[in-house]
Amino acid sequence: xxxxxxxxxxxxxxxxxxxxxxxxxxxxxxxxxxxxxxxxxxxxxxxxxxxxxxxxxxxxxxxxxxxxxxxxxxxxxxxxxxxxxxxxxxxxxxxxxxxxxxxxxxxxxxxxxxxxxxxxxxxxxxxxxxxxxxxxxxxxxxxxxxxxxxxxxxxxxxxxxxxxxxxxxxxxxxxxxxxxxxxxxxxxxxxxxxxxxxxxxxxxxxxxxxxxxxxxxxxxxxxxxxxxxxxxxxxxxxxxxxxxxxxxxxxxxxxxxxxxxxxxxxx
Length: 267
Description:
By secondary structure, the protein is mainly alpha-helical. It has helices at residues 2-16, 20-52, 60-87, 113-128, 132-162, 164-170, 175-182, 186-198, 220-242, 249-266, and strands spanning 172-174, 202-206, 214-218. A 3-stranded antiparallel β-sheet has the order 1-3-2.
C-alpha cells in the first residue's frame, strides 16, 4: 500500500512539474473522469433510494429552504476557488495546478475550499431531492475518502512540489518528511534543524499520531523570517528574469523547471 501511495504521489508530481503539452492533453481527461465519478455517486444514490424504497426525509418546503443556502454558498465557494487557480495560470485538476502556491482568498481560511464547496453542493442536491442515501451515506463516505486522499496523496505531493513554502503555510512538518524533502542523511537533517531551534525559528514536538515521531513547527519569528526570505528571493528572481529577453522568458522558465525536476528525481 505504501509503495502504491508513493507511486501515485510521484506520478502526479512528475506530470504537474513536467512539460506543458502533457498537462494540456491530460487535464480535460482527468477533469472529465472526476466529474463522472461525482455524477455517478449522485445517480447511484437516487437509484438506491428507489431500490430500498427510501422516501423523502423532510417535506418539500423545508427541502427548498434548507438546500438553497447550501447550493448557493457551495457554488460561490467553488467558483471563487477555481477563479483563484485560473488567475494564477493553473487549473483545479491536480496534474495541472497553479505554478505557485495559492494562499489568499478562500485558501487563507481552508486547506481545500474547492472540495468544501463541492461537498456543500452535493449536500444541497441531496436535501433538495430528499435523498437519504446521498445525504447520509454517500456524502459522509465521499468526505471521508477525500480527507484520506488529501492527507496521504495531495499533501505529500504539495510538500514535495512547493517545499518550505507549503510547510510555512501549514505551520508544521514531520521530521521524516523533511528528511525526504531535503534528500539528505537523517543525521544531516538533524544538524540543519538544531541551529534553527536554538535561534527560536523552529519548535520541535512529538507527533500527535506517534510518540516516536517528531514534528517541526515554525515559531512566530520563524514565519516572519520565512516571509522576509521569500520577498528577497522573489525580488532576486524578478530582477534576474528582467535581464532575459521577453521573447525567450517562457522558454527559459520551462527549461529551468525541467532541469530542477530532473535534479529532484535524481536525488
